[in-house]
Amino acid sequence: MKSLHYPGAIAVAVALLFALSLMTHLRSPRVNAGAQLQLLNKFSLADAAGDFPAGFELYTEGSKETRDDGPANRTRRLWHGERFDPSKPVSPQNKALEGGQIRIFIAKTASDAVSSITPGKGAPYLQISPLVGSYSGKRIGDSCMHGGAPDSSGAALWFTRGSVAYTVFVNGPSAKRNWVDVAESIALSLVERADAALALASSPDGTIQVDQTTLSSKVPNGVTIVDIRDYAQAAGADCSMDLIAGKVTLTRGIHTLKLNVGRTEASLDGSSITLPFPALRNGKDQAYCPLDTLRKLGP
C-alpha cells in the first residue's frame, strides 16, 4: 500500500463522519437554553399549581402573584396549603402550615445544570452517591438527588432535564401527607411538561381544514394540535379561556369540553378523558390542543 493513498482515505473518513454528524443533527432538532427558558416560563412553571395536592394555592399578595426572580435564567414560585385560619389568606399573622416552592435554573450546558444541583462547594455529582436519585428510585429527569433521610414533615428534590435544573420543596405537619410522594409527583409532572413543550417547539408545521377554514397546525410526537381559539372560531364553538388559572372551556351544541392547560387530564360532557398530548399554552392568550380531542365536540 502506498502512502499517498492515506490522505484520500482520511478525507473519505472525515466526510463520512461529517455526514453522520449532520444526519444526527437533522434527526434531533436542538433548542438552545434561551429558547428553553422561554418555553419553561410559558409551559412549565405557570401550570404547576395543578401538580400540588388539593388545597394548595399559588401564593399571592392581594391580586398579585408572588414570585422571586433573580437573573434572567432563574425563577421561583411559592405555594401554600393549609393555614392557621383557613378563612383568611396567608399573611405574617396567618402563616401557612403547608408550603411548597419550585425553582428553575436555565444553565448554559447540561454539565452546568448538574453542577448547580450538587451540594457544598461544587462537589462532583457522582461523589454524593447516598443522595443520588429520587427517594423511591423512580427515574426523574436526567440527573436527580434528594434530601436526607425521608422526613414525615417534608421532602426536597433537585434534578435536571437537559440544560435546565429544578428544585422542588414541600413541607407541612408530620403525617399530614406523604410528602415524598407529593414532591416526586410534582417533579415528574415538571419533566413531562418540559418534554412536551420542547416537542411542540421542534415539531413540524402543517395545515388542516375545519369547516372550509384552513388552520395552522403543529405535529409534536405524531399528534396534530391546533390553536384552540382558531378552532373554535372556525367550528362555531364558544370558547372561554382563563390561562392564568390554566382553564379552557369550549361549548358546541350540547357538548362541553373542559381543558386543564399543561395537562392531559380533561373532561367531555362531565366525563373524564385523557388527551394524547397535553393542552399547552403559548404566552398569555394562546393555547394548543390535540385536533382529535376538539373534534369530539361534534361535526
Keywords:
6 helices; 5-stranded antiparallel β-sheet; disordered N terminus; alpha+beta; 299 residues; Copper Amine Oxidase, Chain A, domain 1; 6-stranded antiparallel β-sheet; globular; Protein Transport Mog1p, Chain A
What portion of residues is helical? 25-40%
Numbering strands along the chain, what is their spatial order in the largest sheet? 1-4-5-8-7-6
Strand content: 25-35%
Which radius of gyration do the C-alpha atoms yield? 23 Å
Integer tally of domains:
2
Largest sheet: 6 strands, antiparallel
**H/E element order:** HHEEEEEHEEEHEEEHEEEEEEEH
Mean pLDDT: 77
Separation, N- and C-terminal Cα atoms: 73 Å
Query: Structural class of the helix and strand makeup?
Result: alpha+beta
Label the CATH architecture of the largest domain.
Answer: 3-Layer(aba) Sandwich
Overall body shape:
globular
With helices defined by DSSP (H or I, 4 residues minimum), what is the helix count?
6
Description:
The protein is an alpha+beta fold and 299 residues long. The protein has 2 domains: 33-201, Protein Transport Mog1p, Chain A; 205-297, Copper amine oxidase-like, N-terminal domain (Copper Amine Oxidase, Chain A, domain 1, 2-Layer Sandwich). The chain is built from 6 helices and 18 strands. The protein has helices at residues 5-27, 33-44, 110-116, 179-201, 228-235, 291-294; strands at residues 57-58, 60-61, 64-65, 74-80, 99-106, 143-146, 154-161, 164-171, 205-210, 213-218, 225-227, 238-242, 247-252, 255-260, 265-268, 271-274, 280-281, 287-290. It has a 6-stranded antiparallel beta sheet with strand order 1-4-5-8-7-6. A hairpin with a 4-residue loop joins strand 12 (238-242) and strand 13. Helix 2 (33-44) packs across helix 4 (179-201). The longest helix has 23 residues, at 5-27. The N and C termini lie far apart (73 Å).
